[in-house]
Amino acid sequence: MIPEIPASISNHFESMLKRMGNQLPKEWIKNKTKFLLSYSGGKDSSILLLFLKYLKGKYQIETPHLFYLSHGIRDIQNQEKELESYIQNFEFSFHIVKKKSQNYLLS
C-alpha cells in the first residue's frame, strides 16, 4: 500500500513547481502532456514516481506510464517481484521488459 504523501514532501513539490514556473501543471493539462518514467526502483526514480502521483492527485495530469527494463545480467527475480507489486499500488500503467543477457566474444 502506498502511504499518502506527507505535507513536508508536498510542500517541497510545490516549491519545485514554483521554481519551474507555476503554470506548468496547467500547460501539461492543456497540452495533454504524456509522462513516461523509466523506473529503476532507486531513490531518484522513486521520488519522481511520488512527484507524478502528487501531480496526478492535485492537478489531474494525464496518467503517467511506467517502464522497467530488466537487463537479465543479475538474478534479481525476488526484487523485481517486489518492485512490480510496489508500482501496481500507484495504479499507473506499467510495462516490464525482460531482456535476456547476451554473451559477447571479445577478440
Explain what you see.
47% of the residues lie in helices and 14% in strands. It has 107 residues and is an alpha/beta fold. The mean pLDDT is 84. It comes from Leptospira bouyouniensis.
Write the layout of secondary structure elements.
Blueprint (H helix, E strand, L loop, with lengths): L6 H14 L3 H7 L5 E3 L4 H17 L5 E6 L6 H12 L4 E6 L9
Protein name: Arginosuccinate synthase
Organism: Leptospira bouyouniensis
InterPro entries: Rossmann-like_a/b/a_fold
- Which structural category do the helix and sheet elements fall into? alpha/beta
What oligomeric state do these chains adopt? single chain
Order of helices and strands: HHEHEHE
| Domains, number | 1
Mean pLDDT: 84
Protein name: Arginosuccinate synthase
Organism: Leptospira bouyouniensis
InterPro entries: Rossmann-like_a/b/a_fold (IPR014729)
Structure keywords:
107 residues; Rossmann fold; 3-stranded parallel beta sheet; 4 helices; 47% helix; Rossmann-like_a/b/a_fold; Arginosuccinate synthase
Sum this structure up briefly.
With 107 residues, the chain is α/β, with parallel strands linked by helices.
